[in-house]
RNA sequence: GGGGGAUUAGCUCAGCUGGCUAGAGCGUUUGGCUGGCAGCCAAAAGGUCAUCGGUUCGACUCCGAUAUUCUCCA
């Protein structure tokens, strides 16, 4: 069965059991601070488990693209070494939100595997949670009884808390799980060791394929469990593993999910899969990683140096590294695989096809830049080896190479090994750990339990139409972090405060109690679909009704910037072409930032055209037309622009100004006239194929023009109001360089004369050409003069003194030969003479200077100089 | 968000613990030689040593801040 059909059959099966098929959520998570990537099928439904939202259908099924790069069962560094771990994978799942529970979940899972996919019942094992005495959780007897009806008891295994009790995190919904395992070993192997002894033992051919989680508890901050009012089912089946089972192969990489990629890698790199273990690992690493990276980029996540972008960069660099070392790829090649991937998976995931061009460009650029890093690192490593005669390279050195210059540690170890050097791995690990501890303590967040104040559900955001509302506090908690200190997070029954999202910053404002107490709301965010208000303090009395008031001026400026962002988007597509796609935006009160795909610099003329386009629409006073109750399809049919990598609900909000229609949850002005004016202040690149425009509107634009005008008039005033200021400045510059040249020539002339005069004053004393004199030159001039005289006269001993800005300066020059011959040291001499001018000094044997605060002593110092050659 | 590094000629970079009058290669210009594949030889031009401040007799070098950039960690 082809992988495409395996996926289809799964979804169809649950559709026949009254489940709605929903699309995969984006792999990159945008508005959940606790998670960077979707790492399990349940992520997009988290809000339903937490009770923060209600699903349209209580039965849902999907295939979810997931990314795992850390965690108990998957470390990035392990992927590729075996045949069954991945960074990016698909998770097939079926879900019940307070609907069916263990009975149906278990029976349907068995039916699908054995009757639809026709997997031999004899090779399947199931596990049931054995209970945990410490936490007083009983054995999952319910699941056990259900399984007993289907499976012979000798194929039911009891699992401990680690394997069979599922938790989302330290806090939140959790519950026991039942896993289905499959034994793919040969008959001989099975005869030697029974399959049930290998379940959960990390055997590559005895693997878990489906995990059925029964969510029935909530874990509180103190570690205790409470029963949930509604019970849920959350299942996940690894798509790639299922394909392995159904296609009768022994490795995920032998399924048709991976074979096209592997063939292409063989072709590009001229290597063969299946002959050499090192080569195989490299090929698997690349095949796996290119999927993860391409999907992430298609979801809008570019490789970068922070957060999710950094994870993507690391994955891609690992692929490059393996290609570099084991497949001898010294030039960019990973990007060439995107085409194959897009052909193969573009049907199930159309974003891949749409973003193919971008994916290729971004990956190629990233490859080139990393190959440069590697080159640089190789040179540095060579240097380290030269500086290490005992051939024992310290972990500190290797860490520096890794930490500061980005040179991978495994490459360091490999090269050192080849050259017969050893590496202190332990010290390296220690250094790494230190760095981790530093970072962790800097970003640690401690959150307390939610304290309920008023019961009830929250209505959510009501601030499209109003900036003020009478609200009640539903719950609050205290959060402590190094960055922000102690803060309170408050949840209201409804709120006019816009939470940070869709690129727009969260609102600020105040909360007024009936008694007149005022609490400042410093920011508003969204977590698991819950709107959270941040404040430094809590009101004295939490129970009453409060007036929540948004900072209106700030919101108005933000709204102007957000609406301008839409017009800018439209302008870009008009002026530059429809290949322009939004790749990110940041809408604040004082400026806006817009990233978009475009492959060349936007010219000054185009910038002008874009500004004009937007300002024309501002001048046309286009009213806001808002539709909050459209379906996604209706909006798209109307011509609305949706964003890749964005998760849309079943009802969307469309924002329209004239011909600009976008799906958007942000706040906007009522009429484009409220934007006043739009001005681009910068344009530049953020990544290959991605450009960034920064712009300002309304008051900020006014301020900009005012300050620019001020600077301009100041310049004019300084230049005495010339007709053409630009020409005036250019004249000044020309004149300046001309004068500089003249001064230089004059000074040279002067020095020449002075030099001639001084030369005549040189006296021979004891075979040494000696001169001690006060001159009127600065430190640089004296040095110049000294060396010039030194070039022309042998056996020279010079002492110059000068007064500069009320301070005394002495300098001493001694011909090199003379210094060596007579054992003279200018530095020592000048130090001794320095006491006459109340100062100190030093330098080399042949030239030294001293400074002091007593210019009156210069003459005395000069008189004393002669004794050094007597 | 936290740490580390870098910023020197048009380009790629040296310049060690403060003091050799800031250098090299490539490139540019000029002159000479030469029948090519990076032609050869000679000479010259080209630098606010990122910016600002501090320490010092003296700062490219040490310290602090800023900007830009690379990199690791979260």
TrEMBL record:
Organism: Salinimicrobium catena
PANTHER family: ALANINE--TRNA LIGASE, CYTOPLASMIC, ALANYL-TRNA SYNTHETASE
Main localization (coarse): cytoplasm
Chain ranges of the Alanyl-transfer RNA synthetases family profile domain: 1-707
NCBIfam families: alaS (TIGR00344)
Family the UniProt entry places it in: Belongs to the class-II aminoacyl-tRNA synthetase family.
Function: Catalyzes the attachment of alanine to tRNA(Ala) in a two-step reaction: alanine is first activated by ATP to form Ala-AMP and then transferred to the acceptor end of tRNA(Ala). Also edits incorrectly charged Ser-tRNA(Ala) and Gly-tRNA(Ala) via its editing domain.
Protein name per UniProt: Alanine--tRNA ligase
Name of the coding gene: alaS
EC number(s) on file: 6.1.1.7
InterPro entries, A to Z: aa-tRNA-synth_II/BPL/LPL, Ala-tRNA-lgiase_IIc, Ala-tRNA-ligase_IIc_anticod-bd, Ala-tRNA-synth_IIc_core, Ala-tRNA-synth_IIc_N, Ala-tRNA_ligase, Ala_tRNA_ligase_euk/bac, DHHA1_dom
A single cellular component GO annotation: cytoplasm
GO molecular function: alanine-tRNA ligase activity; aminoacyl-tRNA deacylase activity; ATP binding; tRNA binding; zinc ion binding
Annotated coiled-coil segments of the chain: 729-768
Binding site for Zn(2+): 562, 566, 664, 668
Catalyzed reactions: tRNA(Ala) + L-alanine + ATP = L-alanyl-tRNA(Ala) + AMP + diphosphate
Entry remark concerning the domains of this protein: Consists of three domains; the N-terminal catalytic domain, the editing domain and the C-terminal C-Ala domain. The editing domain removes incorrectly charged amino acids, while the C-Ala domain, along with tRNA(Ala), serves as a bridge to cooperatively bring together the editing and aminoacylation centers thus stimulating deacylation of misacylated tRNAs.
Keyword field: Aminoacyl-tRNA synthetase, ATP-binding, Coiled coil, Cytoplasm, Ligase, Metal-binding, Nucleotide-binding, Protein biosynthesis, RNA-binding, tRNA-binding, Zinc
Cofactor field: Zn(2+)
